[in-house]
Amino acid sequence: MIGKISGILDHRGADHVLIDVRGVGYIVHVSDRTLAAMPGLGEGVALYTELLVREDLLQLFGFPTLIEKDWHRLLMTVQGVGAKAAMAILGTLGPDGVARAISLGDARSIQAAPGIGPKIAQRVVMELKSKAPSLMVQGQGAATVVAEAPAAPGRRKPAPAAKPAPRAVFTADALSALTNLGYQPTDAAQAVAQAADDAPDADTAGLIRAALKLLAPKG
Q: Which SMART domains does the annotation name (predicted)?
């Protein structure tokens, strides 16, 4: 199993990149988001990878974080969602957006991905709702490795690996805090996702306060 590739970015395609690893070129399929975050040609690059094996085809799919790779795997467990459809969903929403859409039961956001119809979108939301909270917690500290590899002699040194987005860390921390307080993961995830939508700039404490208000008994 090829779990990670580090090398020099040699080519960018519409939905893939070619990474030169000591003279061997690997074609890696990536999402639009990942492609946009790639460094320039000739610079170092690294991606976590998933190898899809079929009778007549071997394909590598690349991800900047392990949590995104895990989401790709999970999305493919839904009937009718293949590797490219899962990549389209992640490319449209990102792992945080997918988690939020599933937690809120927002099938329309899933349907916004190219090639995803209403039935598939609804199936994704229904089948994965109970699994979204655990992946949201795992997302805490998931660092990006798009530009981690050393540059080849005579080429520019790549930028350091990106740190996790603060929003993702705040969301994961808030969800973890609520589950530690005894709230059911699904309920906590839905409240945190709603709080994050209502207040995009809120930090962990702000998300916790807003989520607790949403979780408070009504009446």
A: HhH1
Sequential DSSP letters for 79-93:
TT--HHHHHHHHHHH
Closest of 162, 115, 157 to residue 142, by C-alpha: 162
Shared domain for 100 and 133, answered yes or no, is yes
Q: Which residues pair with 24 in a beta bridge?
A: 21
Total domains in the chain come to 3
Q: Tell me the CA distances in angstroms from 187 to 58, 99, 125, one per residue in order.
A: 40, 13, 15
pLDDT tens-digit series, residues 5-33: 999 999 999 999 999 999 999 999 999 88
Read off the pLDDT of residues 76-106 as tens digits, 9 standing for 90 and up.
999 999 999 999 999 998 888 888 888 888 8
CATH number of domain containing 97: 1.10.150.20
d(CA 82, CA 113): 13
Write out the E strands in the chain. Answer: 4-12, 16-21, 24-29, 44-54, 57-63
Element (H, E) at 185: helix 185-198
Q: Is the dihedral of CA 133, 196, 147, 27 positive or negative?
A: positive
C-alpha 171/C-alpha 163 separation (Å) is 15
What residues make up the domain containing 174? Answer: 166-215
My answer on whether 170 and 117 are in the same domain is: no
